[in-house]
Specification:
By secondary structure, this protein is of the alpha/beta class. It contains seven helices and ten strands. A hairpin with a 5-residue loop joins strand 1 and strand 2. The protein starts with a strand and ends in an 8-residue tail after the last helix.
Length: 235
């Protein structure tokens, strides 16, 4: 390394075989460390990814927020909700927990998700809203600690479902996941790249298990939804 004009240092390329070997070793170690969280997610969550047709029965489906367009679920979120409605219609799940962001007055993912499910035949008494699912860890942690969910079918796009499964397992939920198909567009590409960076935070959350941004008191909504009938009186 030598000093050049302006006080900026320029890295000297390896010259000897020993220096090249050391540079190679450092690169390998750095690559392994960078890919370790994603490898952990695939190993933990991959074997538990299913389709709507073969998802095992569970008391609850957990649907993760994925953005709103003019107050309505984005196409990606709508696909997740369609899958959850089908899981309920098939009898695979008996209630649906919608979890998303309601951090400001003009943005309410859970209520938009609830309204969509109502329009698609899921009875009101079978839908439970978590208004503090600010990220995947918060959603999983709160589902277990606040809503008492121990077993669930998770619903998200394929690029996100393994992270959701890994984090829910760390939070104490025995879960399988439905990886909803998504159009290979710019949003899909962004989601895939985002997962590479989100894997590191997910690994840290699973290891440290921090409190969610908002914890709050225990809620009985899921237990009540599971006890409620599904007839007209529940719609």
């Amino acid at each position: 390394m030598r000093r050049i004009r302006g006080g900026v240092r320029r890295v000297r390329m390896p010259r000897t075989r020993r220096e090249w070997r050391r540079a190679y070793q450092v690169t390998v170690v750095a690559t392994v460390l960078a890919l370790a969280p994603a490898t952990w997610m695939n190993a933990t969550g991959g074997p538990r990814v299913r389709t709507v047709a073969d998802a095992p029965a569970a008391p609850v489906a957990i649907v993760f927020g994925a953005g709103l367009w003019n107050g309505e679920p984005s196409p990606y979120l709508a696909h997740r909700l369609d899958a959850a409605a089908e899981l309920y219609d098939r009898g695979t799940v008996r209630a649906v927990l919608v979890t998303g962001d309601n951090s400001r007055r003009d943005y309410d993912e859970p209520d938009a998700m609830r309204a969509y499910l109502l329009r698609h035949g899921v009875p009101a008494r079978k839908i439970v809203s978590d208004y503090a699912g600010f990220d995947t860890w918060d959603s999983c942690s709160r589902a277990h600690r606040i809503f008492g969910v121990d077993r669930a079918v998770l619903v998200s796009q394929g690029f996100h479902i393994r992270r959701a499964l890994s984090l829910c397992a760390a939070a104490g939920i025995d879960s399988y996941g439905v990886g909803v198909a998504a159009k290979r567009d710019v949003t899909w590409a962004y989601g895939g790249v985002r997962e590479l960076f989100a894997a590191g935070k997910a690994a840290a959350d699973a290891l440290l298990r921090p409190d969610p941004h908002f914890l709050g008191p225990r809620e009985t909504g899921v237990a009540e939804a599971l006890r409620a009938g599904a007839g007209p009186e529940g719609s």
